[in-house]
Amino acid sequence: MTTPSWQDTDAYIVEQLVGDDSVLTDTLQANADGGLPAIDVSAAQGKFLHLLARSVNAMRVLEIGTLGGYSTIWLARAVGEFGRVVSLEFSPKHAAVARANLAAAGVGDRCEVRVGAALESLPVIAAEAGEPFDLVFIDADKENNSNYVEWALRLTKQGSIILVDNVVRDGAVADPETTNPQARAGRELIDMLKAEPRLDATVLQTVGAKGWDGFAYALVTS
Predict the structure, then answer these.
(1) How far, CA to CA in Å, does 205 sit from each of 18, 88, 107, 209?
(2) Distance CA 61, CA 57 (A)
(3) Going by C-beta distance under 8 Å and a sequence separation of 6 or more, which residues neighbour residue 62?
(4) Euclidean distance between CA atoms 34 and 111, whole angstroms
(5) Structural domain of residue 119, as residue ranges?
(6) d(CA 96, CA 69)
(7) Residue 56 belongs to some domain of the structure
(8) 1 lies in some domain
(9) Is 73 part of any domain?
(10) Domain count, the chain
């Protein structure tokens, strides 16, 4: 008996606990047709985001890094028709594909995709002085993760969750001599999380359809 691969195990989990979803399948196809990179979260990870948002009764979600809206749809379904997802996307092309996907998924009315550099959009959101976000999902340019978490702290409240994807980088994050800029950014993020008194955090490694990686999970404590 051979040992199942990460991909085989992910496929089994998705078959048993996620199931077929034509809307999400169409979203990924639209992304491919639009020439977007295939770097969306996996189906199992999307379901995890959805369940996490529901677990904390999230009504307001901030997403940094929209791509084609695959993870946005999972989050929008979690907040429900009276919730709100604000998603920041640097590329106008990606944002256009995402908006079409969100509309096709029937969640366009509860989602807002803002185009531009996130570090320019975040101060604007802060200046609007809206209600704090219950959940922040960060999946954008990894080199700015620490900056994004700093802004997330300004836009959340005690009890909010901040999730940062792609931190482990095939284990390179544990190598103090790594020259991988994204792994070095992961190390800087972990140093920040360790030192930040307003956060209680950990990093969980993941394996599956997306290979070996992991995410940082932080609870806003004050």
Answers:
(1) 21, 25, 31, 13
(2) 11
(3) 85, 86, 87, 88, 125, 133, 135, 136, 137, 152, 155
(4) 20
(5) 6-220
(6) 10
(7) yes
(8) no
(9) yes
(10) 1
Q: Tens of pLDDT along the chain (222 residues)? A: 466 799 999 999 999 999 999 999 999 999 999 999 999 999 999 999 999 999 999 999 999 999 999 999 999 999 999 999 999 999 999 999 999 999 999 999 999 999 999 999 999 999 999 999 999 999 999 999 999 999 999 999 999 999 999 999 999 999 999 999 999 999 999 999 999 999 999 999 999 988 999 999 999 999
* Lookup: tokens for 142: 């990894």
User: What's the CATH number where 122 sits?
Assistant: 3.40.50.150
29: enclosing H helix or E strand: helix 22-33
**H or E stretch at 17:** none
Q: Is 25 exposed, middle or buried (0-12, 13-18, 19+ CB in 10 A)?
A: exposed
Model pTM?
0.96
Cα–Cα distance between 176 and 179 in angstroms, integer? 9
Decide: helix, strand or coil at residue 63: strand
Question: In sequence order, what are the beta bridge partners of 186?
Answer: none
Closest CA to 193 of 157, 214, 164, 154: 164
